[in-house]
Design a protein that fits this description.
Radius of gyration: 19 Å
Number of domains: 1
Number of helices: 8
Helix content: over 70%
Shape: elongated
Structural class: mainly alpha
Strand content: under 5%
Order of helices and strands: HHHHHHHH
Number of strands: 0
């Protein structure tokens, strides 16, 4: 076992809850680990509904960065299987999870991808909300034993790679993408848009 993996496991054991951890702390961590991610789509929908054309473009670009990053995660998982803590009998697990590769964390990747995109485009309120929520989720998923700390660091790295790839591609084709997205939005939701319930 190399020194990085030793450090990764040692750091995990420092954060991971134990059998003596109060039940309420574990329950709170489980809620954060499982449900806080729903803030991401809610935030993107809020940006779309309340934002101008540029902000809508940022929301769509955040989705593109996230989808690419999650695709990279899948490739990494196929090429290199990194076991979860429970798969090697390390620490304590308080949240059921499939026995798939732990690295990188998909939850961490979603938060990092969206936060990076929003903050880079000046949407500080939503970006900071996503960033702080992502930090909470990263801690919680290690705390309940389904991820190692380096899984979260890997998620941030993958998000950065996806962001750097999407940015020049978006400059070339972002206008076309937004035209199609707007057309689809206005067709699918024409009824509430025509009645003024949703912005056009």
């Amino acid at each position: 076992m190399n020194s990085l993996e030793v450090f990764n496991q040692a750091l995990f054991l420092m954060i991971n809850a134990t059998a003596s951890t109060p039940v309420w702390q574990i329950d709170v961590a489980r809620l954060i680990a499982d449900y806080l991610i729903y803030l991401v789509p809610l935030s993107l929908v809020a940006i779309w509904l309340s934002g101008d054309e540029r902000q809508r473009g940022t929301a769509v670009r955040a989705c593109c960065v996230t989808l690419l990053a999650l695709g990279i995660n899948q490739i990494i998982g196929l090429v290199w299987q990194h076991p979860r803590p429970s798969m090697i009998g390390l620490g304590h697990t308080f949240l059921p999870h499939a026995t798939d590769s732990s690295f990188p964390s998909d939850h961490g990747t979603v938060f990092a991808s969206v936060a990076l995109t929003l903050l880079s485009d000046g949407l500080r309120r939503y970006g900071l909300l996503t960033l702080l929520s992502g930090i909470a989720v990263a801690w919680a998923r290690v705390f309940v034993g389904v991820h190692f700390p380096f899984d979260m660091a890997g998620a941030v790295a993958v998000a950065c790679v996806a962001f750097l790839f999407i940015m020049p591609v978006w400059q070339l084709g972002g206008t076309v993408v937004m035209r199609w997205v707007l057309m689809l939005y206005r067709r699918l939701l024409a009824w509430p848009i025509d009645r003024g319930w949703l912005p056009s």
